Amino acid sequence: MYSIIHKAEESSINRHLVILGTPDSDWSKFDLSRNELDFVKSELAKDKLSIQLNQYSRSVFIECFKEQKTASKRLEKARERGAALLKICNAAQFEEVELVPASDHSLSLYVAEGMALANYQFLKYFTDADKKRNSLKAIYIQADERAIRDMNAVVAGALHARDLVNEPLSYLTALQFSEDMIALGKEAGFKVEVLHKKQIESLKMGGLLAVNQGALEPPTFNVLTYKPENHTNSKPIVLVGKGIVYDTGGLSLKPTKNSMDIMKCDMGGGASVVGILYAIAKAELPIHVVGLIPATENRPGGNAYAPGDVIHMMDNTSVEVLNTDAEGRLVLADALCYAKKYEPELVIDFATLTGAAVRAIGKYGIVAMGTADAQVQQELSESGEFTYERLAMMPFWDEYADLLKSDIADMTNLGPAEAGQITAGKFLEHFTDYPWMHLDIAGPAFISGDDYYRLKGGTGSGVRILFDYLLKKSN
């Protein structure tokens, strides 16, 4: 469905063409007429970097790239240019386009990535969806087949994550979330085991059960496993994703104006974990990865848990609930406890966890912290720069844990307003005994307007950075 990048075996004279180069590239080798070459030169002299030529049977686009300060920025500019080209192609009703390098062959893959990500649409609930559907169906590039397969896999993973985030609660309950995971697992090649309420109770997952008390539907705890026969890691990497399919704040009802309107996105961390498993399975990476996704809605009805309650987590830690809107860390804590059974090499959790993360860095990156060693943090940061899903590493000093002390229990679920993104991480750290990283994707997971190839709504944040990290780790 989302694999639209193809290897160009041979060029078609009727296929719309995008030539990628620099202002100094030799354009004469692309079968342009003298008048067209003169026009290109005159436009370049005006410092124009995007030039369109209309031929009888096709359009030709000249796309020039200037040097950037970093390699990361250079690739991001290629993706952004791809997103801009995508709009032009769909406006002109193009179905196919071919990218041809005039100099640097590597840019084609990332221009295509930007186009493929920007071509995403969530049309499920439109009655006239066919009329709204984008025309572009295929992007042809000159690249290694494995590189194309990997790119299609990660793009598809990110776009499936967007689908899940964009679904409303009227469809995506916790039970339906599990059903969708099962369907994607069958399609891509990873296993899904769904633990239902009785099993969750037997495991004494007090955080997940407490948050679910006010919900109309039962919770699920989802175990996703990708373990190919040729996996190279002796211990699995475990990914944990927050799966709050809708968050009212519970009895601590969200007070901020309009803050509840987009809370269908509060399972964005869980969606990212599904997208990552989908991508690595489609790309057939030789690496053993487990995904853990606790899922429920957080509502104020029925027997909802209340501020002041004391609950016991899976490891029997007692937690004084100061605010029921700090629910994500409660369900994640149980999942982090469950992860211990795997004796994992590394655990990474993904969550739309705190407003403090949004206030700290906005939509421009992912707030990160944890106990994994410097090499893991460096490698994750490098993947973040490469994919432009950048990490903002937070200090993680012991003193932050003191802000979670309770008068009546082992700890509280909420610290003061200051450094809220860090105290949330410190709460989670309590439930780990392995190398661990916490990625708070609250800022970039759901955005209010198009940002090049990151489109309004769910973005699939977290999928591309982790795919790159796992790809490099498995090579």
What does this 3D model show about the protein?
This protein folds into two domains: 5-143, Leucine Aminopeptidase, subunit E, domain 1 (3-Layer(aba) Sandwich), CATH 3.40.220.10; 151-474, 3-Layer(aba) Sandwich (Aminopeptidase), CATH 3.40.630.10. With 475 residues, the chain is of the alpha/beta class. The model has no long low-confidence stretch (mean pLDDT 96). The chain is elongated and about 85 Å long. 36% of the residues lie in helices and 20% in strands. The protein contains 14 helices and 20 strands. It has helices at residues 34-45, 71-91, 107-118, 129-132, 145-166, 174-188, 197-202, 206-212, 268-282, 328-339, 355-361, 374-387, 420-429, 463-474; strands at residues 5-7, 16-21, 50-54, 59-64, 96-101, 138-141, 191-195, 220-226, 237-241, 243-247, 289-298, 310-312, 318-320, 346-351, 366-370, 391-393, 411-412, 436-440, 446-447, 457-458. The longest helix has 22 residues, at 145-166. The chain starts with a strand and ends with a helix.
What is the number of domains? 2
What name is given to the CATH topology of the largest domain?
Aminopeptidase
User: Termini distance?
Assistant: 27 Å
Unreliable stretches covering 5 or more consecutive residues:
none
Which structural class fits the helix and strand makeup? alpha/beta
Top-tier CATH class of the largest domain: Alpha Beta
Mean pLDDT: 96
* Biggest beta sheet attributes: 9 strands, mixed
What is the approximate shape?
elongated
CATH superfamily of the largest domain: Zn peptidases
- Number of helical stretches of at least 4 residues: 14
**Amount of beta strand:** 15-25%
Please count the beta strands (DSSP E, at least 2 residues each).
Answer: 20
Work out the helicity level.
25-40%
Please give the CATH architecture of the largest domain. 3-Layer(aba) Sandwich
C-alpha Rg (nearest Å): 24 Å
